[in-house]
TrEMBL record:
This is Hydrogenase expression/formation protein HypE. It comes from Sulfobacillus thermotolerans. NCBIfam families: hypE. Residues 169-319 form the PurM-like C-terminal domain. Pfam families: AIRS, AIRS_C. InterPro entries: HypE, PurM-like_C_dom, PurM-like_C_sf, PurM-like_N, PurM-like_N_sf. CDD domains: HypE. Residues 38-157 form the PurM-like N-terminal domain.
Length: 344
């Protein structure tokens, strides 16, 4: 890692975050479960608990510092539940239980905290899980920003085949479950007090049900799942390409972007491909099963806009390309910098 100080861009989920993980964190903490860098670690029971026999658990953790705490379509509470559930789902796991750590700033309103906790409880109930343990810390006024939440989640792996960003193959198709960029733009517009003619709502939602339907329909034809949160679709596809040493071509004309989100991005000079999502998934599926995958996703209320946005190629490994509307091709890199801080 070249930098000698941490900057805001190291938390944006893009190139700087990748450099921090690969240049400092992973080399010091390296182990087989961590090194895959998927959304959740897969823990085979035979390895960790030999007496339990076959099967595996998924385990994940995340922290939420979104500002403002309340935004159109949700708040930090349901964002924390949904985000953790989604990381487990991307491993092909059924969520079992969550933990929640609250870091509260002195002076924060108990009414606000009650609203956040109520939303957390409602979100957990919708998925059929519970927050079973937690912790609370309070920091002095001015040393925090209202409410931060850390979560961890555990789930049971339901699939019987290897899956993850290290299992993508040339010829595979890349699917997205719906329109991109809504969450990041909704949070940013609220924070900056910018009003648009058409309101933009965060897409925060749990994706386990959609994943379950997809895996039931396509099975081992699903090679990888990932939710494009920080850094957006562009960064997530780059992580996938590096993970399997393949190239991914994205078709600009196929990208689903709501008109209001596209308009906001044009005004603000932002690219929807680098904006965070909190209720969408990317699925890499074998080419011979893509029709079944699309059919299954489109029949689910969270996947009605599902479409193919790209394909996997042999070379050059670790690269993502965008085939533009004009017929040209350009490199689609990870997010650089931090244009939208504190969005999750």
């Amino acid at each position: 890692m070249k930098e000698d100080r941490i900057t805001m861009s190291h938390g944006a989920g893009g190139k700087s975050s990748h450099d921090l993980i690969e240049g400092l964190i992973r080399p010091l903490l390296s182990n087989p479960a961590l090194d895959s860098l998927d959304d959740a670690a897969v823990l085979p029971l035979a390895t960790f608990l030999p007496s339990c026999g076959e099967g595996a658990l998924a385990f994940t953790t995340d922290s939420y510092t979104v500002s403002p705490v309340i935004f159109p379509g949700g708040n930090i509470g349901d964002l924390a539940i949904n985000g953790t559930v989604n990381d487990l789902a991307m491993a092909g796991a059924r969520p079992m239980a969550l933990s929640a750590g609250l870091i509260l700033e002195e002076g924060v309103s108990t009414a606000l905290l009650r609203e956040v906790l109520t939303t957390m409880a409602d979100a957990a109930r919708r998925v059929g899980i519970a927050v079973v343990t937690g912790d609370t810390k309070v920091v002095p006024r001015g040393k925090g920003d209202g409410i931060y939440i850390n979560t961890a989640g555990v789930g049971v792996i339901e699939r019987q085949w290897p899956m993850g960003q290290g299992h993508i193959k040339p010829g595979d198709k890349v699917l997205v479950s719906g329109s991109i960029g809504n969450h990041g733009i909704a949070v940013m517009l609220t924070r900056e007090g910018i009003e648009m003619q058409s309101p933009i709502i965060s897409d925060t939602r749990p994706l386990y049900s959609l994943v379950h339907v997809l895996l039931q329909a396509v099975g081992s034809g699903v090679h990888a799942l990932k939710d494009p949160t920080r850094g957006g679709v562009a960064t997530t596809l780059n992580e996938m390409a590096v993970g399997s040493n393949v190239a991914i071509k994205v078709f600009e004309e196929a990208l689903p972007v709501d008109a209001a989100v596209r308009g906001a991005c044009e005004i603000l000079g932002l690219d929807p491909l680098t904006i965070a999502n909190e209720g969408k998934l990317l699925a890499v599926v074998s080419s011979d099963r893509v029709g079944e995958a699309l059919s299954a996703m489109r029949q689910h209320p969270d996947g009605t806009q599902a479409c193919v946005i790209g394909e996997v190629q042999d070379n050059p490994g670790g690269m993502v390309f965008l085939e533009t509307l004009l017929g040209g091709t350009r490199v689609l890199d990870m997010l650089v910098g931090d244009p939208l801080p504190r969005i999750c």
